[in-house]
UniProtKB/TrEMBL annotation:
It comes from the Bacteria. This is Xcc1710-like domain-containing protein. PANTHER family: NADH DEHYDROGENASE [UBIQUINONE] 1 ALPHA SUBCOMPLEX ASSEMBLY FACTOR 3, NUCLEAR PROTEIN E3-3. The lineage of its organism: Bacteria, Pseudomonadati, Pseudomonadota, Gammaproteobacteria, Lysobacterales. SUPFAM superfamilies: MTH938-like.
Length: 122
């Protein structure tokens, strides 16, 4: 699914989302990653939602988001209540959606200047 034709110069954005890859600006990523408007953390070592724990959500929290989007692949898969609580207790909103929806939502939020961070499972 093509998401963007133009490249804004001031932030990272998702250009394309497929089942096996997501294109951030002009770079095609084939492994799980974390994305903010300013930074992409490639090769995030988490492959499934079930692998989420306090250690590997630390990379998300370090980016100081106001909202986190979890792109869980082709289907929505919710993390444990304990993981959700890690975000909510810090006042960080969290939304769980498939990768295509997370891609679209990320682009809208960062275009509005929101401190959104997306974590994609590939």
């Amino acid at each position: 699914m093509q998401l963007s034709l133009n490249r804004p110069e001031e932030y990272l954005f998702i250009r394309n989302c497929r089942a096996d890859a997501i294109t951030v600006v002009d770079r095609e990523l084939h492994a799980s990653f974390i994305l903010s408007a300013e930074r992409a953390i490639e090769d995030w070592p988490v492959r499934t939602v079930g692998e989420l724990d306090e250690k590997n959500i630390a990379a998300i929290l370090e980016l100081k988001p106001e909202v986190v989007l979890l792109g869980t692949g082709a289907r929505i898969v919710f993390p444990s209540q304990a993981i959700l609580a890690q975000f909510l207790q810090r006042g960080i909103g969290i939304e769980v959606m498939d990768n295509a929806a997370a891609s679209r939502t990320f682009n809208v939020l960062v275009s509005e200047g929101r401190r959104a961070v997306a974590a994609f499972f590939l």
